[in-house]
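Whether sequence alone determines local backbone shape is best considered at the level of individual chains. For completeness, the protein is quoted in full, as a sequence line and a line of structure tokens:
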Amino acid sequence: MKIGVMLPVGGNDGPAGGSPGWADVKAMAVAAEESGLDSVWLADHFFYRAPDDTVYGMHEAWTLLSGVAAVTSRLELGTMVLCGSFRDPGLTAKMAATLDLVSDGRLILGVGAGWHDPEYEAFGLPTDHRVGRFEEWLEIVARLVRGETVSFDGKYHQVKGAVLVPAPERRIPVLVAAFGPRMLDLTARWADQWNTAWFGLPDEKLTERLAAIRAATTPAGTTVDLTVGITVTDPTQPAVADPESPTISGSVEDLAEAFRSYESLGISHLIVGTEPMTVRSVEHLAKAKSLAFG
């Protein structure tokens, strides 16, 4: 099973609960590569507005991921997840093909329909029919990155004889984050990987979601790699200001056992959000991975 880590992108992900800079993103990515983890991931938002109206700023995910590609050579590079509402499908596919070229075939194109209304409203993006818009967007993107010439006349998106030139050098894996019936159906039709998040130890909700994705893919005659986002707290470091729940907190041995429990469920890739987001947290994950899987 692969173990990846979320990189800081904004909000209070940086040192001492402040906003992270490029040096912080780079340090965690390099530590992940050097310590033996398998992948790094970036969230995609304009900002997050909390219920108390506090606004947490975010850096632009794709630009950061391009920088990470330049300072690493082995890690898989993923978006967790790129919002389909923020970028035209043709541009997204072109960006994916180019970053996959730059990174020597290391991209995982993680995508989703989006959800945070305040950032949509602030930047003039429509919040209606979000899944319907994503359905059209995903078909165009998936077919383009698989080397097809695409004509599509939808309600929200239209392309005519669209093609990526030069063509992608490989089949770029598409990951869809999904849990509702319509999104699961789209995952079965167009995705190579599926994600659900955020969890601590495996629980009943995860069992239900695994059953749902298997129920969606079986009639379609397709298979997808199963990935799960989890949150891990390192109890030997200072607590973060706004901790996530649920989380896995404990020793390297405890974390290794948790990794093995996810592997036993058929999970192929764990994507870990660490608390705090530090190089030391990356090293904590890497030790647990080594203990769990050798």
In short: The chain has one domain: 2-293.
